[in-house]
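I hope you will forgive my troubling you with a question about protein structure. I set the record out below, with my sincere thanks for your time.
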Amino acid sequence: MKRIRAVVVKEFFHIIRDPKSLLIILVLPLLMIYIFGSALSFDVKKIETVVIDYASSKLSKDLVKVFANNPYYVLIPLDTAGGKGSAVARAEEMLRRGSIKQYLIIPGDFSVNLRKDRPTEVAAIIDGSDSNIANVVYQYNEMVFLDFLSRKQNLEEFLKISTKMYFNPEVKSSTFIIPGLVAVIMIMVSALLTSLSVAREKESGSIALLFISPLRSHEIIVGKTAPYVVVALLEGAIIMLVARFGFGIPIRGNLLILLLFSLVYIVSGLSLGITISTVASTQKLAMLATLLITLLPSILLSGFIFPLDSLDTVLRSFSYLVPATYFLMIIRGVVLKGAALRHFIPEGLILLGFSLLLINVASIKFSRKRQASR
């Protein structure tokens, strides 16, 4: 027992001497409980909807009012002055950009047909790229129409809703999940590649050679990051090929646009990894910190699986600090919706800002460690 006690005491000393790893182990379960408890929800709290009302009659306005009075809908009226084609084109553009979840078209003969007991249809065009949200929107639409019909007599036989799912007609979950998985894997691999870089130099002792080299700190950081850009881009290309030919995911947009945004996204991930590696003292700690900082937020707080609207205020605020939040919008928009470069300029600029900020932070951290070693 004395010998066993000596080993136990020794191990406790090892634990106490590595407080960073202990902190991660103790904090991680609490963090996971909070995030999973708040994020595990497929509820859709806001259904941004454009209403194109060509009838503009009392009856059509009554239908619009039923949607407006429902707390789950956020109605965005669209001016129809430019004609039918113009209004629909603008609504499709908003759907492609991801700023709305659906648009409704009330035909011009809506009221006339109903008054003459002739069948008429209201078209609902839903963004089907996220099958879970699309199904919820479809069910909510049905409930709203039933509510409207319950207030009007003898319309059940003549008024129907015609639903069309854009971008994912079969409403397959894999069509939505796999492009998001590409984004999660890319940020994790990118950060992991570089997070081990400086930590490995520290453990081997070769970091001293970098400290005494004539290179400036930012030159060392850029030099360490550049090779991994190629590796991460190759990794991303392989994943996209598997998604396309292994799972049949359609690629509707321009691959050069996706490459441009992927490059910026990868640089932000590599910069994050370098920043972590300048702080972490060991490769083990660098790996744990990287997985914690990239994997959990990218899966739970980016819209990868759960709608951002379902998050509470605190977690939603954190989601804006996760690079995957912006790249998910881009990759799903380009791959599934065929969106153009102009649709994602703000997201691209934010990712570029993340990259520049993290590279500067890594350079400053490296400079401080360099000065402290002298």
